[in-house]
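Re: weekly structure request thread

Next one in the queue (243 aa):
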Amino acid sequence: MKTPPLILCFLLSATLCGLSTAQTKQDTIQITTEHYYPYSIADKDGVVYGASADKIHELFKRSKLAYQMNIMSWNRAFELARNHADTCVFSTSRTKERESSFHWIGPVMTGNWAVFGSPDKLNKVTSLKDIQQSTIGTEEGQVSLAYLSEKGFKMVTSTESVTTFKNVALGRIDYATAADTHGKKIIAENNLKDKVVWLFNYSSSDYYLACNPKMDTRTIALLNKNLREMKADGSFKRIENKY
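Done, posted below.
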């Protein structure tokens, strides 16, 4: 039996409407990140700001792209971007193992990785070779985990960086590793300065906005083009200098 033209038109309209709604949802890019001073921080209302976050806000404003930015644990932020279309994560170190898992925009920042330990180690422990037989803590999913594990270090993970630093203060592990500025902020915010201090930096890393590989390559090209323009016109550096 043939479907009457009026009903057929209605069905087609409903289908097209559904497709249009789905497309609208896809057009809002989800941006995930962690609490990572001074790169990404949330204010009391949950608005994300920081040296990396502000650059990405400006980048998406220039690109006229709808987006939402949220802070969560690093492991969750990373996995969401890796597994969900139209999702990006920052501040992400670009490694050989991660290369094919994302489209890359950046770099948006550069940071240093450091080791932290008890004050009695200051000026005595100055390089990784000094702690080869020690336990080192880091947050799950951090690039430092793979980097140091490959070098044979005994690594202990936690779901949050602050837990790692408290474990050093309590003597449960020997050292913590984190970005130098982030680690110093954790120490200050948690009154750990008598128990945990910065010891040395051991590596540096460029940080990127890493987007799911299913994202439209034209969107990736647009974001990279506008980021280059931000660097050329000085706005990139002006944002960085605020922090």
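DSSP finds eight helices and ten strands in the chain. Confidence is low (pLDDT under 50) at residues 1-26.
Next request, please.
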